[in-house]
Amino acid sequence: VLQFVESKHHKMQLVVGGYYFYKTNAYKGKDMWRCCMYDKNKCLARCHTLDGHIIYFANYHNHKPPIKQF
User: Fold this and answer.
1) Which GO terms describe its molecular function (predicted)?
2) What whole-number distance in Å separates Cα of residue 57 and Cα of residue 5?
C-alpha cells in the first residue's frame, strides 16, 4: 500500500521509506515520481507506480531521509 501526504503547497507527495517524492509525469496509468531533494541535493532517486504498486525504482538517495514536521 502506497503512502501519500500533502505538501505545504497542497501537492500530493509519495512517501517511500521515509523519503518524499513528487509526481513528474503520468502516462498510460503509470505515475512517475522524483525525489523531493532533486533540486537541493541533486538526488537522482526515482520511482514509477501503477495501480497502487511501485513497479520501478532507480538510483539511491544521496542524503538521509528528511525530518518532516506536521
Assistant:
1) zinc ion binding
2) 19
pTM, rounded to two decimals: 0.88
| Secondary structure string (H, E, C) spanning the chain | CCEEEECCCCCEEEEECCEEEEEEEEECCEEEEEECCHHHHCCCCEEEEECCEEEEEECCCCCCCCCCCC
The CA-atom distances, in angstroms, between 8 and each of 1, 13, 31, 50, 51 are 23, 10, 21, 25, 26
Domain 3-58: state its class.
mainly beta
CA 43 to chain centre: 11
What are the residue ranges spanned by the domains of the chain? 3-58
Please write the tens of the pLDDT for every residue from 10-62: 999 999 999 999 999 999 999 999 999 999 999 999 999 999 999 999 999 99
